[in-house]
Amino acid sequence: MRQRLSYGLLLPCGMLAGMMLCGCAVAPRFTSQESAPAVRRADGKASSPSGRAITLYEGIASYYADQYHGRKTSSGEVYDMNALTAAHREWPFGTRVRVTNLENGRDVTVRINDRGPFKEERIIDLSLAAAKQIGLIASGTVRVRIEVLEWGP
Questions:
Q1: SS3 72
Q2: Sign of the torsion angle spanned by Cα atoms 126, 111, 143, 101
Q3: How many CB atoms within 10 Å of residue 145?
Q4: How many domains does the chain have?
Q5: Which of 119, 120, 124, 137 is closest to 85 using CA atoms?
Q6: If DSSP codes are grouped into helix, strand and coil, which group holds residue 7?
Q7: Confidence class of residue 65 from pLDDT cuts 50, 70 and 90?
Q8: Which residue range is the domain that position 112 belongs to?
Q9: How far apart are the first and last CA of the chain?
C-alpha cells in the first residue's frame, strides 16, 4: 500500500525549516567600521572628540510617530514621539547615538529605548522629533550614518 503525505503537516514543517534557515543567514543590513575616525583634522590624522575608538554604521533610517505615541516601548518606557529617542534591533537600551542624514548633513543625538525597525532594509527607527531634526519627514526614509557615542548598560 502506498502512503500519502499529509498536506496538513507539510505547511508547518516547511515553515519550521524556513525559520531555521533564516536564523543562520548573515544579515547585510548595515556595514560597520570599527574604530573609524569621527573627525579628520587638518593635519590628516583621525581623532574622536574623546580620543576613544568609535563605531560607525550606514544604512536606511525611518521614523515612527502617532500610531505608537503613548504606548509602552520594549524598554518599558512610554513612547513620546516628541522626545529624541530611537529603536534599534539589538543595541542595549540607553545607548546614545548620533544619526546623520547623508543627503543634507543634518544630525541628531538620540537614545535607544525601543526595538525595531521591523523592515529588513532599515537599521534604525527614529522618533518624530528626531526625524524632523534631520529632515526625514518628507521622504519617510533616508540613508544615514550612525555613530555610537555611548553604549548603554
A1: strand
A2: positive
A3: 17
A4: 1
A5: 124
A6: helix
A7: confident
A8: 29-150
A9: 63
